[in-house]
């Protein structure tokens, strides 16, 4: 039980770091292609990124593909 309590925070930190890297991968593309939609919610921004898929950075396109988008 003690091991689980020690490992759980490490797993959660790794997941948070991964999510931050994914966010960072698309941040420039969002501000570049979807600036007008930034305040409209995540789903609208995602739709915008999909519409601009051919123009996205390789890192952002990879994140979308990895998440089935």
Annotate the secondary structure layout.
Blueprint: H1 2-33, H2 42-51, H3 58-66
Question: What do these coordinates show?
Answer:
The longest helix is centred in the N-terminal third of the chain and has 32 residues, at 2-33. The chain has 69 residues and is an all-alpha fold. Helix 1 (2-33) crosses helix 3 (58-66). The model is unreliable at 1-6 (pLDDT under 50). It has one domain. The radius of gyration is 15 Å and the shape is globular. The chain has helices at residues 2-33, 42-51, 58-66. The protein is built from 3 helices and no strands.
Features:
69 residues, mainly alpha
**Mean pLDDT over all positions:** 79
Give the DSSP E fraction (strand runs of 2 or more residues): under 5%
Number of helices: 3
The domain tally reads 1
Number of strands: 0
Calculate Rg over CA atoms.
Answer: 15 Å
Q: Sheet with the most strands?
A: none
**Uncertain residue ranges:** 1-6
Summarize the structure.
Helix content is 74%, strand content 0%.
């Amino acid at each position: 039980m003690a091991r689980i309590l020690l490992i759980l925070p490490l797993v959660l930190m790794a997941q948070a770091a991964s999510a931050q890297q994914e966010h960072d991968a698309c941040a420039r593309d969002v501000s570049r292609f979807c600036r007008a939609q930034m305040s409209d919610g995540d789903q609208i921004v995602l739709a915008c990124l999909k519409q601009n898929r051919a123009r996205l950075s390789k890192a952002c396109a990879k994140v979308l593909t990895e998440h089935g988008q």
